[in-house]
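Contributing new records

If you add data, match the layout below exactly. Sequence lines come first and carry their own label; structure lines follow with theirs. Keep one chain per record. Anything else will be rejected by the validation script.
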Amino acid sequence: MLHRIRIRSPWAVDALITAVVQVAVTIPFVVPRSADVPPATWVFYGMTTLSVLPLLWRSRAPLTCLLAITLAGFVYLPMDGPGQPMPYSPLVAIFTVAAQGGARQRQVTIAAGLPLVAFAVALRTNTAREYLFAFFLFTMVYVLGVLARTRQAYTQAVEARAAALERDREREAERAAERERARIAREMHDVLSHAVSLMVVQAEAGPLVVRSDPDRAEAAFDAIAGAGRDAMVQLRRMLGVLKDDPGEGPGEKPGEGPGGAPGQGGAPHGPRRTPQPTLAGLDDLVEQVRRAGLPVALLTEGEPRPLAADAQVTVYRVVQEALTNVLKHSDARTVTVRLAWGPPGGDRLSVTVTDDGSGVRKAGGEGSGRGLIGIRERAAAHGGTASAGPGPDGRGYRVCLRLPLVISSRAEVPEVPEVPEVAGRARVVAEPGEAT
């Protein structure tokens, strides 16, 4: 209560304490006195009041307040006025210096206070009993002031720490929200960019063959519809996770991807809220790009081993982004996606996507696109590295991802089928271990 009042109005607390002390020192003047002692006059009462009024400034000038009270007390001491059972004003002033004064003020109080207490007792009774009582009273009040100052400092430190922790919590919540927004933006960029690129390529090719090759035109339009459905399914899944909605999307069964096919998660009866792709979905991803007319070879080197789920998502998204960039920015005729697993006991997975295009991206030059920045961020999040630039001998373009093999006991061994031959604009035959 007093702490709250002190914060809002320090003057109010000092005035209240002064009033209480004034009531205490007034009691000897209103209590009837015996006939053998001098009467309590208004002069004596006025001098007593002068020793109380400095308490109004005790918080702003503790040492000055104590000196003023001490001076008034020594002036009143030779007078034959009513005595006080306790030196109320000096005690409050000593407590204030010990609790609120600075180090220099406390040193002066101790150095000058004890001799002045001894001098006052010598002027009054000069008895051992009063010496002991006066010194004990001075020491105890000063110690109480020190304890009050320590408690106040501790309380302030706890409050400051609590405020700092609250600010840190708010900042961490903001950073977590920013990371989540960045992750969602990156996922939506990958999904939409890939789907739109496929749709644009097929939409541009469809009208050219609609009369000369109706079957091919129909396949192009089917590919557009399939890419659109796939994008819608993935977006519904993302939004379902954000809304914390476990329900099924319209027209979609649990564990199915676009068109009723098993989803990229690989679990035919798994919960719908598993939107993240795995390495098992690379075959479907490559097939989508082939239907757009770009031959893609998917090769695997070494023995596949269990890989953490988040690392599988990174590999899938990097391959997806690289293939999307080929469709959007390159004049390549073939692309090779190679997953090279380290030897038994090795600790690294290398993923390269190499095309035979001009080697120069139309959007911003080498490695400057937002997608390539996202690739590097994904790799760094797993302690890996990513690079993008011209392919071997300066021909084509290559995106390379290297990830440490952080094994997860719950991860499944990815099954990435090897495709020795693909049909499209060009014929690509590749064997494991063959140079790209």
